[in-house]
Amino acid sequence: GGGRLLDCRHDPGCFRDEQIDTLPNPGLAAAFASLRTFALGGRRQRAIACYWGWRAAGGDGDLAAVLRLGASLELSMSFFFQQDDVIDHSATRRGHPSLHRRLAADHERAGWHGPSGDFGTSLAAMPGDLLLSWSGMLLDRASDDPRQVRAFKAIQDQNLADVAYGESLELLLQAQRRYDRKLSLEVIRHK
């Protein structure tokens, strides 16, 4: 079809904003609006690698599908960055308050019931899940060819499983104080 090539189906920020704007509860939409700035910035390495890998393989086929696949990769990695910030108790991400810290600050400012830090950490899990869900939605739209989508999903599923395994192994090794070269390389390989 017509229209510009880089529409919201290809741009993870635009797609994310469209999804936030359709949330039915205004309170949650406001809380999740912090996702608008959370995934901004960064180098978009995975999307760039996706594009150049496609080009290196001959660049044959649908560029729009490659762009949607790259956008999906960016949203899935934003999910892992958000999780990593909570796990590592990170105060910032790319020079801005991390998502859980931002949500805790919103809670504190509003004077809501309960500990602000707990609220921020608990609620941050849900926007992270939305990022992963939206990544899957973009991936489902990456191509009109169901075989291609299945192939994309198989790769994406393996990538997600690898990163989750690597992060889990890293946490276990830190708790056990096991600083073994072989296991450390295994963490790196999966993450």
Helix content: over 70%
Q: Order of helices and strands, N to C?
A: HHHHHEEHHHH
Distance between the termini: 38 Å
Count of helical regions: 9
**What is the overall pLDDT average?**
84
Strands ordered across the widest β-sheet: 1-2
**Could you give a short account of the major beta sheet?**
2 strands, antiparallel
Protein described:
- A hairpin with a 2-residue loop joins strand 1 and strand 2 (96-97).
- Strands 1-2 form a two-stranded antiparallel ribbon.
- With 191 residues, it is mostly helical.
- The model is unreliable at 1-6 (pLDDT under 50).
- It has helices at 12-21, 26-32, 35-38, 45-56, 63-87, 99-110, 116-140, 146-176, 181-190, and strands spanning 92-93, 96-97.
Any key phrases for this structure?
mainly alpha; 9 helices; two-stranded antiparallel sheet; single chain
Layout: helices, strands, pairs:
Layout: H1 12-21, H2 26-32, H3 35-38, H4 45-56, H5 63-87, E1 92-93, E2 96-97, H6 99-110, H7 116-140, H8 146-176, H9 181-190
Antiparallel strand pairs: 1-2
Short description:
The chain has 191 residues and is mainly α. The protein has helices spanning 12-21, 26-32, 35-38, 45-56, 63-87, 99-110, 116-140, 146-176, 181-190; strands at 92-93, 96-97. The chain has a two-stranded antiparallel sheet with strand order 1-2.
